[in-house]
Amino acid sequence: MSKKSKTSLVIATAICAGCLIFGLGDSWAKEKVRKPIQERFEATISPVFVSTPNSRLAIAIEEFTSDQELQDLAQTFLSRGKRALEDAMGKFKKGHLDVPGGEGMPIEILESEGAGAVRNLTILAERGLNNRWGVSQQLAADYPYIFVQLEVNEQGNGKGTLIRFAKLAFNPQGRMVIENWGRQRFQLINVHLVK
To answer: How far, CA to CA in Å, does 81 sit from each of 73, 109, 123, 127, 153?
Structure first.
């Protein structure tokens, strides 16, 4: 093997080793930032909206959206519009939502209000552009979120509603405005905290 070939081989090996080390470092870093699950809720969806015997909704909560994060999102929407809002929301992951036909959807907004006897949870998860529910790609793009509201007691039991195709906006006062395509809401029954 010529001296030039040996040098090229050494350089190529060093580059590959560097990529491997940096690649592993990146995956280790991602693993470190994974947040522990604080709470898990399950519920039954009624009526079921896909042809499957599974009617279970599962919610894994890693953290809640802060007031400052909501204010920043409102300001982004009011100053730069829907697309900028969606880009900003894509940076948040507060947990994940599993519904029939769409598992592991990242929760991007998760609010908890109230204390004591009743707590209200507001959840907005990115559905993505999957077409498992027989809708057009345009509709999926225009209404990219699943919206869930839960009302639970101190033991974590309660009820709720789910909107399959939701759009998010903010009013001039900075409050969330949810638009529902088709106006259909699904009831969530047997809502309970998973121990």
So the answer is: 10, 17, 21, 20, 37
